[in-house]
């Protein structure tokens, strides 16, 4: 299995989410370049979000007339998560933040699952830290790795660091596998202690289903990080240690 397979598999999982289908139905795409799969996924997402754009823009404009506390109630009781996700990128940033912080974490989690974070990045970055951590915890409880992975690249370091506290080792491995911006992996893992990273490797070693995600994770570490934690890699069971070395050799 090559590193390219890992990337394509992750993109297939995310594309299946967008299309509302099972990943197994898209297995024929495993040999397609991962970058092309990502571009196609983003095109599909743009098409979905731009449908009925004029009507959504009118709704966003009309929402300015409603006080934030009332609008938050309307969002939960009338609009629902899908419509809120479509409108989020069209409202004023300060207004969007003010409404978002009044919504229940469970509802915000529903919205997050429907949201294209590229369109609401400024709002996401300014949502209060406690709210983001609560939503992250809810998404982890739901095992919604894809949604968490789409938001990591839009959050400041202090928020990511706090969110890591409610994300277990197995969850972190699975989230990293479907992270939208894989260039962030090395930086995010750099926020972890050596003890926490050792915990990730122990969890992966104990569950072969996690080998592919952890191998993919390791290919996105910088040479400096690999050197820093090389003694931890040496602690792995022989079979996994051999796979790690093969994967790192391919990636270098």
UniProtKB/TrEMBL annotation:
It comes from the Bacteria. This is Uncharacterized protein. It comes from Amycolatopsis azurea DSM 43854.
